[in-house]
Amino acid sequence: MTDYAPFSSAASPALVDLRSDTVTKPTPAMLEAIAAAQVGDDVFGDDPTVNALQERVAALLGKEAALFMPSGTQSNLCALLAHCGRGDEYIVGQLAHTYRYEGGGAAVLGSIQPQPLPNQPDGTIKLEDIAAAIKPDDPHFARTRLLALENTWSGQVLSTQYTNAACELAHARGLATHLDGARLFNAAVASGRSVADLARTFDSVSICFSKGLGAPIGSMLVGSRALIARAHRIRKMVGGGLRQVGLLAAAADHALTHHVDRLADDHALAKRLAEGLATLPGVTVTPPQTNIVFVQISDGRSTALLEHLKSRGVLATGLIGLRFVTHLDVDAAGIDHAIAAAREFLEA
Fold first, then answer.
1. Are 221 and 231 in contact (CB under 8 A)?
2. Residue 10 pLDDT > 90, yes or no?
3. What is the pLDDT of residues 53-89, one digit of tens each?
């Protein structure tokens, strides 16, 4: 039995918001958990709820320690700054979130040089490209210190065979490894592997509670005690010192307990949406592995389709092709309504 209220197919349909899995609202049970949370001042280290959550997540991912962050961007930034110093370099995918969508924070705030490399269609970076990008120990070059990968990448799950090989290469060349695992639980559910297995070869991992897990805010950085101690200092410098954060930690803890297994429902709805849209004229759909569906529309009609969908109570984004993201506030009726609205436009 779920404790959320998704789309209802009434005469005036409720909004079917497929822009992102960040748009979810706290469920009634999550709100109860927030209201019942025991809190303290986290800057003094005495918020019991966030302390317990940090211990839980560290153990869940098989790492020594964890640190709660307000956002995934801050979590990734603190990781990069904890791994690298001024004049250092990190290797990253050209289309990775840490490089492309986080405001250049590592460069702006940490004087860390990104070395972006092409992402392959499956989200991987060729091992030979990684090896070739590692700079020699020479004063002409930035010091290559870190390899940063992302899982899932545009909703696709990186294979453990690939991540193991990439991390083995990086470690053999003296680099640390960081995983932007904003949707790592989606990857775990889709692959049938544990998050600890997916995180095992990485020195640090960032996860998000505010995407598929449905919490209103929050991310977590995990790694060794030494790295988390450095990240804790950096979090303070970038304005992340937190007070009665147990209110937010309680929401994240509830999400971990109740919203992980149900990610399979989101994946099934994404497949349902993809299969429905693929039957429409002029539509090319990338088969989803998790909860994100990418769609290409022929004849330059993407913007017009988005406007039509909006007029029918369906929201999506068009930044990198049309993107539809399923989540706990959407059900099968909402997906069918979205398909019908798209059909109305494309078959007119």
1. yes
2. no
3. 999 999 999 999 999 999 999 999 999 999 999 999 9
Once rounded to an integer, what is the mean pLDDT over residues 260-274? 98
Structure tokens at 97: 């979130």
Give the amino acid at 116: P
Residue 95 has pLDDT above 70, yes or no: yes
Q: What percent of the chain has pLDDT over 70?
A: 96
Q: Are 52 and 212 in contact (CB under 8 A)?
A: no
Look up residue 224 and give its two tokens.
């060794």
What end-to-end distance do the CA atoms of the chain give, in Å? 39
The partner residues of 91 in beta bridges, in order of sequence, read 115, 147
At residue 208, φ and ψ (nearest 5 deg) are -120, 140
Cα–Cα nearest to 293, from 309, 269, 263, 312: 269
Q: Which has the closest alpha carbon to 49: 215, 214, 231, 281? A: 215
Query: Please, what is the angle between helix 184-191 and helix 263-278, to 10°?
Result: 80
In tens, the pLDDT along 32-47 reads: 999 999 999 999 999 9
- SS3 of the chain: the string is CCCCCCCCCCCCCCCEECCCCCCCCCCHHHHHHHHCCCCCCHHHCCCHHHHHHHHHHHHHHCCCEEEEECCHHHHHHHHHHHHCCCCEEEEEECCCHHHHCCCCHHHHHHCCEEEEECCCCCCCCCHHHHHHHCCCCCCCCCEEEEEEEECCECCECCCHHHHHHHHHHHHHCCCEEEEEECCHHHHHHHHCCCHHHHHCCCCEEEEECCCCCCCCCCEEEEECHHHHHHHHHHHHHCCCCCCCCHHHHHHHHHHHHHCCCCHHHHHHHHHHHHHHHHCCCCEEEECCCCCEEEEEEHHHCHHHHHHHHHHCCEECECECEEEEECCCCCCHHHHHHHHHHHHHHHCC
Q: Is the pLDDT of residue 2 over 70?
A: no
pTM comes to 0.93
Tokens matching residue 58: 């560290």
Kindly tell me if the per-residue pLDDT of 115 is higher than 60.
yes
